[in-house]
Specification:
By secondary structure, the chain is mainly α. Helices cover 57% and strands 6% of the residues. It has 24 helices and 6 strands. The strands form 3 sheets. It has a two-stranded antiparallel ribbon with strand order 1-2. Strands 3-6 form a two-stranded parallel ribbon. It has a two-stranded antiparallel sheet with strand order 4-5. A hairpin with a 3-residue loop joins strand 1 and strand 2.
């Protein structure tokens, strides 16, 4: 049985939902009242018709409509019962129903770097309804879940969360991801099939970006895109064509570049329309930036791409600036600036990069002040939350402490501290814009030229 479950999952270990189900069954047998109230009584789990079914709904009838899924659930439920040594204690059909409840109501416990590391289930959080334009989101601090507002929420407003990746490119992709939950989303974004630019324009969180790496609210409200260049049908065709290409995971740099050039050609209509935040163009750029971060030859070129994604893509896709996605993007830029600052100081920058605009921008910028300013922005956006255990914030705090120890930076640090305390202070605000935002914007502006040079048809 263990082997059959492994084969279905394609892993060398039991799938996380199977292990979660085994834990639920063990706790039910041990008499855990909270688990019984949530999933169903021990008598019901053993097969009794009159037992309490628990407060969670498992959408069992919906899962039954998908034959292969239903068969897989039977294998997984059997595996959990056998794995836990409870063959004589629980009904397999009821174990499968509990698995349905887990699959419907649990949250993926995501590590920002490693992906899914477990699942989290809280019966109260599970009651939150879905919206592709949610008012809140769930983040994790070690073993604790934190429900944070996505924007201002008035008393009496419904608190909604997004059950799927909020950055999915179109209604069809989001509805496909929502099949697990057996309902059709009718939120404002899905009702009118809005793209990320249209959704951003009506998002109540948009004004929060005045304190972000992209503070140009007018640009967010009226993006400089040309919709006449590409239709919705073309957008869908681009996305489908892009998905047919090989993934870049585990590829060499040379192989990645070959795939990236094909991706770039497919995305050309989006490039011409300047619709950088529409998938799959953003992912094409971001994955190339990650590849270049690990390349001795191309590492300097990763910086403008990261700046571009953080200023021209992410603010439209993920409007709220203090979401983990966007905070991590800023920290990654700081890490790259720390490297380019060393290359600049040693004189090695020009030997590693032949782009005059990029070399010139970094040579004239105060890269240490840029790092400090961005880190203070990160701490201001995320440091006052209940996610202090998140390793990205810990890393940002440690880097900021290191910069504060550098000699001869008293004036710059004092000005940035004034800005951190009061971002609207005229002198401090001007300093932050000139020393941090302006060079980031300049670096980002170089990305389209670099991308075309490295990926365009001439290559």
């Amino acid at each position: 049985m263990f082997g059959r479950v492994q084969q279905r999952a394609g892993k060398d270990w039991l799938p996380t939902p199977v292990r979660a189900l085994a834990q639920v069954l063990i706790r039910l047998k041990a008499g855990d009242q909270a688990v019984a109230e949530t999933f169903g009584s021990l008598a019901w789990a053993k097969g009794a018709s009159d037992g309490e079914r628990g407060i969670l709904d498992g959408n069992v009838e919906g899962f039954k409509k998908h034959d292969q899924v239903w068969k897989d659930f039977e294998i997984q439920a059997t595996g959990a019962v056998v794995y836990a040594g409870l063959e004589n204690d629980f009904s397999i059909p009821r174990a499968r129903e509990i698995l349905c409840k887990i699959q419907t109501n649990a949250f993926n416990r995501l590590d920002p770097d490693a992906g899914m590391t477990g699942i989290y289930l809280d019966p109260v959080l599970a009651m939150a309804n879905h919206s592709c334009m949610p008012s809140a989101f769930v983040s994790f601090d070690q073993r604790n879940a934190v429900l944070r507002a996505w924007r201002d929420i008035k008393e009496g407003d419904e608190i909604t969360i997004c059950y799927v990746d909020v950055t999915l490119p179109n209604k069809a992709a989001r509805q496909e991801a929502l099949k697990l939950y057996h309902f059709e989303c009718r939120c404002p974004r899905c009702k009118d099939d809005l793209d990320v630019y249209q959704a951003c324009q009506i998002d109540p969180a948009l004004p929060l970006n005045s304190l972000s790496i992209q503070p140009d609210l007018e640009k967010l409200r009226n993006p400089p895109i040309d919709r006449s260049k590409v239709s919705k049908e073309q957008l869908d065709a681009i996305y489908e064509a892009w998905k047919t290409l090989p993934t870049t995971e585990g590829r060499s740099e040379a192989e990645h570049m070959k795939i990236a050039r094909k991706r770039w050609e497919i995305c050309k209509p989006l490039v011409e329309a300047r619709m950088w935040a529409i998938e799959p163009l953003t992912t094409t750029i971001m994955q190339l930036a990650v590849c270049w971060q690990l390349s001795f030859k191309m590492v300097v070129y990763a910086l403008p791409l990261l700046c571009f994604v953080s200023t021209e893509c992410d603010p439209f896709k993920v409007v709220t600036p203090f979401l983990p996605w966007r905070i991590k993007g800023i920290v990654t830029i700081v890490q790259m600036l720390a490297l380019t600052a060393e290359l600049t100081a040693s004189g090695a920058l020009a030997r590693r990069c032949d782009h005059e605009g990029l070399v010139g921008t970094l040579a004239t910028a105060d890269q240490v002040t840029m790092c400090e300013g961005l880190l203070r922005l990160v701490m201001k956006q995320g440091g006052d939350s209940n996610t202090g255990g998140w390793h990205v914030l810990k890393q940002a705090k440690a880097m900021l402490e290191d910069i504060e120890k550098l000699p001869g930076r008293e004036t710059e640090t004092a000005m940035l501290r004034v800005w951190e305390k009061d971002p609207e202070d005229p002198e401090a605000s001007a300093f932050f814009h000139d020393q941090v935002i302006k060079p980031i914007t300049t670096l980002a502006s170089l990305a389209p030229e670099i991308l075309e040079d490295k990926l365009g048809s001439k290559k």
